Amino acid sequence: MRSLASLLCGYVFGWGLFISGMIRPEKVLGFLDVLAIPSGNWDPSLAIVMAAALVVTAAGYALARRRVPIFEQQNQWPAQTRIDRPLVAGAALFGIGWGLVGLCPGPAIENLASLSPGIVVFIVAMVVGTLAHDRWYARGTAPEAASLAHATAADG
Amino acid sequence: MSNFTPISAAIGGGLIGLSAVLLMLLNGRIAGITGVFAGLIDPLSSDRAWRATFVVGLIAAPLTAALLGYAIPVPQLPTSFVVIAAAGLLVGFGTRLSNGCTSGHGICGIARLSPRSIVATGIFMFAAIVVVAITRHAVGG
User: Per the CB < 8 Å rule, is B121 touching A61?
Assistant: First the structure.
């Protein structure tokens, strides 16, 4: 049932990215291109997507905090609170990659539906980057399956 | 602002929020694609099934949209595979190092008013805006 539930969630998420246009990297770049504001070519859509998603998520999480999940023992809320160097450096590296092509992980994976060669290259590189972190970098800094601890304690 | 699509953006954003809420109410999990994906591809992961079905659902959405007559969008990407691969490496490594991306930090984290996520989102937004400013406006593009 857990897998069916997350299938539904992934499907709804995918429709959200599709309908909002955020599946399209060129639309995301249209938001990030703030220097286009004076010429009137800026596309603020991404801000509306985030605002709508935040309102719904904040309201729903308020409800979820008072309940146990249906198919699990308990909610797994992220426990980390420290603003540390990995957070800052990682966000900066991610932002550079995001700005280069307009793809973040969700839309990148969803775009596999198009089987476009560029997307396949991006996903392979993203897998390499992810494993490079989990298998070598994190393993080197913290022993005992750091990657798995990460995977479950992640903010997202 | 001829490209601005506020209504479809609000509907789509609402659905993304609904997905995040459902995943917490049903499975008690944060809908962060970084965490979902990393736990799926990690060779030592023991918790793969729900992550795999989430990804299947994600990819199934545009495919069913195609059955309904919509075109599957073909993403416009840089012509250079080197640039695409470099971006993929940065996104993969960076999101793991900071433990989240646009969904985990930008939506789920900010919805929880997590200071970590607010800082991370500010940083990756700023970095991406700077990169776009350079690639579109400084490098003859």
Answer: no
Label each residue of A34-52 as H, E or C.
HHHCCCCCCCCHHHHHHHH
A66-89 pLDDT per residue, tens: 999 999 999 999 999 999 999 999
Mutate: best of B46, B91, B139, partner A, most A CBs <10 A? B91
Question: Tokens 């800026």 identify what position?
Answer: A42
Query: Cβ distance A97 to B133 under 8 Å?
Result: no
* CB of B54 closer than 8 Å to CB of B36: yes
Please tell me the pTM assigned to this model. Answer: 0.94
Contact A13 B88 (CB under 8 A): no
Q: What is the ipTM of this complex?
A: 0.96
Q: Which segments of chain B does DSSP mark as H helices, in order?
A: 6-27, 33-41, 49-67, 81-97, 110-111, 115-133
